[in-house]
Design a protein that fits this description.
By secondary structure, the chain is mainly α. Helices cover 70% and strands 0% of the residues. Helix 2 runs antiparallel to helix 3 and helix 7 packs antiparallel against helix 8 (123-134).
């Protein structure tokens, strides 16, 4: 039945066997079964490991079958397009997402679009999407950007040398009382390091200390790079000292004896 086919397609898609997943999808029509929107979602997700052009064809076909694409349908399509570096198309698909979708599905759709912005270095679009998410509208379910949203926007800004925008995003994050995670700290540290902003790096390390967030090796490497860019040796020493505190004993208030 359809449920069995859907489960088999999903298993193949998760195993990166996109050809087999789409073959099962095609078999449904020959078995006089009617694919559901879940069938199409699964087929589109399988296309993350296949030709992105099939995504467009599947979206057209589901409409011809009298089905309505949901927010999660477009999220799967955007993810497949973004993986194929078709980031412009991914952002175009966001405009087709039903604005009265369940809030969780809508948040995932926006975060998928923000990820496309990060991959395409579209920093302006990422900030516009964050603002759009935070704007109250009678036509859109109220959304609150989460840490994933901010991480993608920070990545887009960092890759575009927009460190001041990254700084503003981190302030917005704190104003919303969101807890930092490793991915977000890496994105922020990368943005500051690219612009040799050691002051911002110091501030981020202090914020991480307050939230008991230990730097990853990626963040540590970027912090060292920022320290090396400091004009005064005392500043570089201070930055490396703080980093040493975190890497050896996150809870200590003084550096370990050597």
């Amino acid at each position: 039945d359809v449920v069995t086919y859907n489960a088999s397609m999903d298993a193949c898609a998760r195993g990166q066997q996109w050809q087999r997943s789409l073959t099962l999808f095609d078999e449904m029509f020959h078995s006089i079964l009617y694919p559901t929107i879940i069938s199409y979602n699964t087929a589109i997700s399988a296309c993350e490991n296949g030709p992105w052009t099939l995504v467009v064809a599947l979206l057209q076909d589901l409409r011809q079958q009298g089905l309505k694409a949901r927010a999660d349908t477009y999220s799967a399509a955007m993810a497949a397009c973004s993986k194929a570096q078709q980031n412009d198309l991914a952002l175009q698909l966001l405009s087709k997402v039903p604005r009265r979708s369940p809030s969780r599905q809508l948040l995932v759709a926006y975060n998928t679009a923000l990820n496309a912005c990060a991959k395409g270095h579209y920093w302006m679009q990422s900030l516009q999407l964050l603002e759009e998410m935070s704007t109250d509208s009678p036509d859109v379910v109220s959304l609150s950007p989460d840490v994933v949203s901010f991480s993608s926007a920070l990545t887009a800004c960092g890759k575009s040398q927009q460190w001041e925008k990254s700084l503003a995003l981190m302030q917005d994050l704190k104003d919303r009382s969101l807890q930092m995670n490793t991915f977000l700290c890496n994105a922020a540290m990368d943005s500051y390091s690219r612009a040799s902003q050691w002051q911002a790096t110091l501030a981020l390390l202090e914020d991480m200390r307050k939230q008991s967030q230990q730097p990853s090796m990626v963040a540590a490497t970027l912090a060292v790079s920022a320290a090396a860019s400091a004009a005064e040796s005392a500043v570089a020493t201070d930055l490396l000292h703080r980093l040493q505190l975190f890497l050896w004993h996150p809870g200590l208030t003084s550096a370990p004896a050597t």
